[in-house]
Amino acid sequence: MRLIRQFERRDFFVVAVILLMFAMLAAPYLLGMREAARRAFCEKRQTDAAMAVRDYEQDFGEFPGYRDWLGRDWLGRNQRDSPPHDGQPADDRFASTWAAKTLPYLGRDVDRDALAPRALLAHALKKQGVVATSEPLPYLPEMMCPNDPRTQAKTFEPWLTWVVNTGAPDLPSLSNSPPDWPANGVFLDYIADPNTRQSLENIEAADGASYTLLLTENVDAGSWPQGNEAELGVVWFPKGWFPKGGRPKDKANRRPLTINQLAGKGDGSIRFARPASFHAGGVNAMFCDGASRFLSETIDSQVWRDLLTSDNAAARPPGGNRTPPNLKAIE
Known about the structure:
31% of the residues lie in helices and 9% in strands. With 331 residues, the protein is an alpha+beta fold. The longest helix has 59 residues, at 2-60.
């Protein structure tokens, strides 16, 4: 009996060691399967958002602006030939975003009045404890990547993970030039520049839909009901954007970031308007033809700029009308 008990103890330790070794070997595989599932789920949600944008473009012949007017009829196409631009009294429309414009295509019925500036201000004041109540703003899982840490928060806000291709960072125009050119990207500021438009037809006639980025993910994006270019889009930086040939004194604070660099540490500035995720090695992205691709963290900066420009040959610095630069010479 003593020999049997000793044998049982030895067996127990051997089995425990084998199980431990098996767990150590299997853990990376199981974690990889979990990450692959999250990435696939992210891609599915992102595809739905991209299809909503494309459906909007098919209905109205133009992409929504990254900032755009939201009229009382929600989807009413802006009448650009007579002010106000959506053909409605100014009191009946207000500034909103590309995401709000495409909500009906995602099957979302959101109360328009809940997105009005007064409601958004009340929501912000409630978060600060200034007012006791306000209308809740919808948290939309359709606008979020499951790997975005904000999906694990105790309370949910109307966050946004998907960001659209807004081209080069907008600049105030010193002439009759727009803040940014359609050739530089896809989504424009229709509120600041009501006369410039972008459509799938224009993109197909230039670089082509399969070579032009539509949207991607950024875990440092803002909220879907409101925001600026840095919070709603991704950009590329033309040469000379910064003083002295693009070499600012405070490089660490102002230099544009690469994919996934400082992910989750955004400060709302334009340099954080770049793809960022917690997927290993890169980010999911959708192109104007509806195709999904995984962009590597090591993507060349010139390739990145080429993917964002909708008409590479006509790309030019925003806010001016200088000769289109040779993008291959951009540092």
